[in-house]
Every structure is written in structure tokens, then in C-alpha cells.
Specification:
- The chain has helices at 3-53, 82-88, 120-123, 128-166, 170-198, 204-216, 222-250, 262-273, 299-316, 368-378; strands at residues 61-64, 70-72, 94-98, 101-107, 113-119, 258-261, 281-287, 294-297, 320-330, 333-340, 382-387, 393-400.
- The strands form 3 sheets. It has a 5-stranded antiparallel sheet with strand order 2-1-5-4-3, sandwiched between helices.
- The protein has 2 domains: 1-172, no CATH class; 258-400, Histidine kinase-like ATPase, C-terminal domain (Heat Shock Protein 90, 2-Layer Sandwich).
- It has 10 helices and 12 strands.
- The chain has 405 residues and is α+β, with helices and mostly antiparallel strands.
- α9 (299-316) packs antiparallel against α10 (368-378).
Amino acid sequence: MSLKRGLRFLALMILIFVVAVLLARSSILELRTKAEELFVHKRLAELREVAVEGRSLQSPLYIVTPKKEIRPLGKDFPLKGIQDILESLSPNPGGFRRAGVFWVYLPLENGGFLLSSAPYHEVIAWTAGFEARETRNVIVVMVAFGVFTIVWMWADRRALMAVQKAQMVEELEKKVHERTEALKRMNRLARLGEFAASLAHEVRNPLGSLVTAAKLLPDATGQDQDDLAGVIRRESARLDHILTDFLLFSKDPHPTIRSILLHPLLQRTLEGLRRSKDFQNVKVTYRLDPKIKEIACDPEHLEQVFWNIALNGAQAMEGKGELLISTRRHSRWMEISFRDEGSGIAPEKWEQIFEPFYTDKRRGTGLGLSIASRIVEAHGGFIQVASDARSWSLFTISLPVLDES
């Protein structure tokens, strides 16, 4: 291998590693920002209860007077950097981080503030598992690419030496050529294998396959070319699905509520799902309440909810079984239920399955149920789960009935 070619290869490996690090860092920062937003939202609600109802708060609590004096409410915790804290307060409620402590403040009518703090590691505690996985993935990528670079350079050098020796002995030329070609094929397969094993994150898997297929396609012919083209189409669709889920998850749902017939919307969604491979051997059964007509919702958002939950049920049954869909009116709630015949869900996982990035499946982003839950909550409703943890699971969507007439 020439020095120039080796440097180019090393530069490519470094570039891919840098991209992996930046992607991991971006994911971690985005997740921490989400954790901060959720903490600020929850703590502001508690501070409003303190301001209105005079309730106590177990966390450190202070009041900032209009004269910018900070006084403790309850136990007095030592404060550091008081001036920096005061300068960070603004007329709008919010939060900020200072020296490992996260502060949340609520402006008061008299010009003062209610101020509460918590250790920053507690604010982002639920992100620790994801951040650890991101860090581990980057380390795996670095080690794998390092090993792969050494193996590839060694194999290429061996092949070059074999060709040079074959030129001296015509009798060995054919054997050396065959061995060289075999090594090249093994190197290509090893590259694909290392890529698939190293890029554990959802986005890096299809992206790695796309990059590898695109490199091999110009030199491929016949069936190899068709196979590589199939890889590009399949991984592009998979990447589009992952990115679509991420985009849906990153947006706060703002439903446009209008009256629409519930059952046609439900059946239209399931009819579209029947064309997917996950529904080839799934029997869809309806048990619909004929008294239910219209429902107040955003039909596009609600269709996404039906799609995600039904697809989750079909995948739980591994593409075969009965999916029972039922509707009923219960007090001031409209209930839409999906019951599958899968392996069930353990009770300790009932809450976890709605968390972002949580999944027990080998494929999928782990965002489908999280997106569905956020959309339903934006409609003023909620999703409940029931299961015997062995043979069935039941997802029930409850939406408020806005029109009593």
C-alpha cells in the first residue's frame, strides 16, 4: 500500500469517527435539553402551587424580594454565586444551570421571585442510560475502526507482495491472483460486518449500509449490482422511517381539533397497514359501538396514533394472530382499544414502553409509542396498558368527549 493511499484511508476513518462523536454528542445534548425542559415544567407547576396555595416544597426554596435579597423558605441551604443567580433571573419563568446546580424561578406580582434548586445530576438522571450507551457506541466504533484499519492495511500489503512474487514465477501467478481476489472479497465482507457490528445506534446502522453499498456499486455487475441496489432502496426506506420518527418526536404536537367520524378513520388506518409485511397474517377484528359517531380530534395526528399502536401489536405477534379493535363511550371519555395476542408485557415495563428510545425489538427506534402518547396527551387524553405478561396485551386510548349534545 502506498503512503498516499494509506493516508487517504486513515483520513476517511478519522472522518467517520468524528461524525460518530458529533452525532453522539448532539444526541446527548438534545436529550439533556429535553430533560431540563421537563424538569422546569414540573418544578414551575410546584412553585405555582406554593405561590397560590402556600404549599411546602421538599427541595431548597428561596424567595427573592423586589430589592434583590434572597431569603430561604424553610431550611437554609448555603448559596454560592448569589450575584450570578440574580443576574440570570428574567421576567419570564424558566430555569438555568450554575456550577452543578439547576435553578428554576417563578416571577411574582410584587416584582420578586420564587426560586428553587436541585442538583443537576438529578435533573438529567433519566438520561444516564442513554448517554452511557452513546459513549459506549463511540468507543466501540473507535476500537472497531482501529482494528479494521490495521487488518485491512496488513491484508492489502500481503496481497501486493504476493502479486510481486507471482511476476517472477509464471506457474504461481494464477494461484497468487486467486488468493489476492479471495482476500479482497473477504476484506469487503469484513468491512460490511465491522460496519454493522460497530454502528449500534439506530441512525448509524442504515447509514453505514448505504455508504458501503454506494462504494461497491460502481464496480459491481449482474446480480451483485442488483443486490447492492436492493440494499440502497431498503436502507434508504429504513433511514427515512427512523428520521420520520425522530422528526415526529422532536415536534410538539399542536392538534387542529375538528369533528370527524371515528370508525371510518380507524378502518382507513388499518386498511393502509394491511399492505405492510407485519400484517400479512394478522386477522383484524372490529368490535365497534354503533352509537359512537363523531369525535373531536386532529384526524392526521390520531391516525398516527392508531398506526403506531396497531403496528406495535402486529410486531408483538410476529406478524400472525388476531388484533381486536373495539370502541366504547365511558362517561366523559371515548375509548379505543387494541388487543393483540403477543407475548405480553411485564407490569414493570408498562410505564417504560412509553419512554423515548425504549424498545425490546431488534428493529425500530423506540419512539412509536412515545409519539402516540404525546399526541394523545395533546388531545387531553391518555393511554393505558394491561397485559397478562404471557399471551396478550391491551392498549386503551381515552379521549375526552368535548360535545355533550
